[in-house]
Amino acid sequence: MARTARTGKPTLAVVGATGAVGTVMLQILSQRADIWGEIRLIASPRSAGRKLALRGEEVEVVALTEDAFDGVDVAMFDVPDEVAERWAPIAAAKGAVVVDNSGAFRMDPDVPLVVPEVNPHAARLRPRGIVSNPNCTTLSMIVALGALHAEFGLRELVVSSYQAVSGAGRRGIDTLRQQLSLVAGTELGTTPGDVRRAVGDNTGPFPEPVALNVVPWAGTAREDGWSSEEMKVRDESRKVLGLPDLRVAVTCVRVPVVTTHSLTVHACFEREVTVDQAREILATAPGVVLFDDPAAGEFPTPVDVVGTDPTWVGRVRRALDDPTALELFVCGDNLRKGAALNTAQVAELVAAELGGS
Ligand SMILES: NC(=O)c1ccc[n+]([C@@H]2O[C@H](COP(=O)([O-])OP(=O)(O)OC[C@H]3O[C@@H](n4cnc5c(N)ncnc54)[C@H](OP(=O)(O)O)[C@@H]3O)[C@@H](O)[C@H]2O)c1
Fold first, then answer.
1. Residue of the nearest CA to atom 1 in ligand 1?
2. For the CA atoms of the chain, what is the radius of gyration?
């Protein structure tokens, strides 16, 4: 393994350091235990020369080139799918273990899809030198579901998402902020089309206005009316949990929240469940916070969950008509556990392994 002479610690590259996920990644790397030697920040040539704050210093961004991976042990990729598809194999061929946040390799049978609280062992077997991170919607619920699955055996999921605009990157955030500035302080939202006329034709990465609205669509079109985001939730939940036949029904919805995805979950298990058992599991599961006292006004919402690491769970109920099913409301910061934090955790697993620990 290449080691910097200065520190003897592994060298990390962050590809896509200037993006929505990359920005949170730099904060996380500045906050977590400092296991890295050099951290090289990489983005498109547009950003080369920019200086970004990392571990209390200013670090200059370099352009993505083959040479940028010289001496790199672990390379995190936080870039669009097509950029990862081209460059992750190049980084791997240069000897780096790639931890990729894009959708480019998630369903490749030779690429493990890893959530450290659920299937950490999978990160060790990586024939292509690439480990994938699940998408943010799956990640926002999977830690809680993995804990319940380990006890009760998951059989079926019925899920609706309430997804934040930052799931669509910096453009998503910019679009919501701009639209909010156009509708704030008005009486819009009372007649058909009034919001649409106020925000104009440019709806950014979304098919409809997102301010003062909910949009039942995320991603691109797949067969039979499904969206790409919905297919990811189904396919990636199956892969992470090791349940290739898990029944999953899902509808993904975009809401006017900046960051933190929420989901309602109807989870069916192999055997009867009780709320007390479920609460005990969720209260003790690593990476999960049980926040569930509706009588006291306690349930998770994005305004409190944003900026935090765990998966928050509330509204835990046994299904009214099925003693083997639970109803949950789950919130997770889509840029932290939903992206950057999970990547950082996987990279730490890889670094520990490379270091022989
Ligand atoms: N947002 C989320 O909640 C979330 C969650 C999980 C996974 N992801 C995935 O993470 C990845 C990054 O998402 P994001 O939301 O952070 O996107 P973003 O805000 O649009 O940022 C994209 C990043 O990629 C860089 N980039 C774009 N084209 C490049 C090129 N040709 N060469 C080198 N760098 C290039 C950009 O650099 P410049 O600034 O120089 O253009 C920027 O750093 C995507 O694959 C996304 O699907 C996102």
1. 167
2. 21
Which pairing describes strands 97-100 and 130-132: parallel, antiparallel, or unpaired?
parallel
Q: Is 266 a catalytic residue?
A: no
Place of tokens 């009760």: 152
Q: Edge-to-edge strands of the sheet including 51-54?
A: 51-54, 57-63, 39-43, 12-15, 74-77, 97-100, 130-132
Q: 70 C-alpha to center of ligand 1: Å? A: 22
Catalytic residue among 121, 149, 252, 261: 261
Distance 28 CA to ligand 1 centre (A): 17
| Alpha carbon nearest to ligand 1 atom 28, residue | 44
Which CA distances in Å does 103 have to 107, 227, 231, 347? 8, 14, 12, 17
Question: Annotated binding residue at 317?
Answer: no
Contact status, residue 139 vs residue 146, Cβ threshold 8 Å: no
pLDDT, tens digit, for every residue of 75-101? 999 999 999 999 999 999 999 999 999
Question: Is the shortest distance between the CB of 342 and ligand 1 below 6 Å?
Answer: no
- Position in ligand 1 atom list of the atom nearest CA 23: 16
pTM, two decimals, is 0.94
* 136 classed as catalytic: yes
Strands, E assignment, the chain:
12-15, 39-43, 51-54, 57-63, 74-77, 97-100, 130-132, 154-163, 247-254, 261-269, 288-290, 311-318, 325-332
In tens, the pLDDT along 217-243 reads 999 999 999 999 999 999 999 999 999
Euclidean distance between CA atoms 264 and 7, whole angstroms: 46
Domains and CATH numbers, the chain: 12-133+340-355 (3.40.50.720), 138-164+214-332 (3.30.360.10)
47 is in an annotated binding site: yes
202 or 268, higher pLDDT? 268
